[in-house]
Automatic annotation (TrEMBL):
Keywords, comma-separated and alphabetical: ATP-binding, Nucleotide-binding, Transport
GO MF terms held by the record: ATP binding; ATP hydrolysis activity
Record protein name field: ABC-type multidrug transport system, ATPase component
Domain ABC transporter: 5-234
InterPro entries given in the database record: AAA+_ATPase, ABC_transporter-like_ATP-bd, ABC_transporter-like_CS, ABC_transporter_ATP-binding, P-loop_NTPase
Xref: PANTHER family: ABC TRANSPORTER ATP-BINDING PROTEIN (PTHR42711)
Species for this entry: Gynuella sunshinyii YC6258
SUPFAM superfamilies the record matches: P-loop containing nucleoside triphosphate hydrolases
């Protein structure tokens, strides 16, 4: 599938000397949901701001649907809708007026039917004549999404869109995102709610300290980096793991009543059958067993921690 966003050798160094982005290369495919994950200060918002033409890069190139975001700013920006983290809009304007005004800013002809559909999809139709100052925080967030969609963009950025919003809005938003993707809109989101990325995204990108750590298909990422655990609920507690089982990745939990075995989910040989046989030989009986896979959050934390350790060892050397 063709890339709708193409980023090559992108750098951003602020006047203070701080390098927010370091040699970013990234392609985002048309029609996908791409989740950009990273800790606070990793460079997520700076990257989005450059693609949207809000911040100028120090060097490198960004194409949005084939348009250079610097040379062809108006054409590139017209392809993009942005829902920023911060809620900022004219408090004295009405909902209907604000969304129509946003559409007009991009040179689009009036389309009341389309604006009505957006407002209905976001449960804002009943508030269309209300002034923005009278809206709740959740309704203002819905309004920001409506404004971002007003000019029918092909690319939609959602920068921490569900931070601090209620469960109902979060559910409505993801239902709307799925519908937009079905209509060919490319969605790029940043989120602290990693379970949302795990549920919604087609691909995951991890950024840390201004560098792209990894980009992969979500399922493949979890298969390659995820681990599986076998948890055995023991009939009698263990004081210690027998020395003859030291070759197995075993840990004790719950005051010795639970034995946890970690193994590679991609390996052809899990070692479970041999482990269970050895436990039987040692007279270690269990009453229940469960398996679980690593979550995306665990993988993300592991990746960031690994990069920080690598960086630290590089600096110290």
């Amino acid at each position: 599938m063709a890339a709708i966003i193409s980023i090559k050798q992108l750098n951003k160094i602020y006047d203070s000397g701080f390098q927010a982005l370091n040699q970013i290369d990234l392609e985002i495919e048309a029609g996908e949901i791409f989740a950009l994950l990273g800790p606070n200060g990793a460079g997520k918002t700076t990257l989005i701001s450059i693609i949207c033409g809000i911040v100028n890069p120090s060097s490198g190139q960004v194409l949005a649907d084939g348009h250079d975001v610097l040379r062809d700013y108006r054409q590139a920006r017209g392809k993009i809708g942005l829902v920023p983290q911060e809620l900022s809009t004219d408090s004295f304007e009405t909902v209907w007026g604000a969304v129509n005004f946003s559409r007009g800013l991009f040179g689009k002809a009036p389309n009341p039917e389309y604006i009505e559909k957006i407002l209905r999809d976001l449960s804002l139709w009943g508030k269309k004549d209300s002034r923005i100052m009278a809206l709740s925080g959740g309704m203002k967030r819905r309004l920001m999404i409506a404004k971002a969609l007003s000019h029918e963009p092909k690319i939609l950025f959602l920068d921490e869109p569900t931070a601090g919003v209620d469960v109902e809005l979060r559910r409505d938003m993801w239902e709307m995102v799925r519908g937009l993707r079905e209509n060919g809109v490319t969605i790029i989101l940043t989120t602290h709610y990693i379970e949302e990325a795990e549920e919604m995204a087609d691909r995951i990108g991890v950024i840390n300290k201004g560098k792209i750590v990894l980009v992969d298909d979500k399922k493949q990422l979890m298969q390659k980096l995820g681990k599986r655990e076998l948890r055995l609920a023991l009939k009698e507690p263990l004081d210690a793991i027998p020395a003859t089982l030291k070759d197995y990745k075993l840990t004790l939990a719950d005051d010795g009543y639970q034995l946890i075995y970690t193994f590679d989910s991609q390996s052809d040989h899990s070692g479970i059958s041999e482990l269970l046989r050895l436990l039987g030989d040692h007279g270690i009986d269990f009453k229940d067993l469960q398996t679980r896979e690593s979550s995306l959050e665990e993988i993300f934390v592991s990746l960031v921690r690994s990069q920080q350790q690598d960086t630290g060892s590089t600096v110290s050397s």
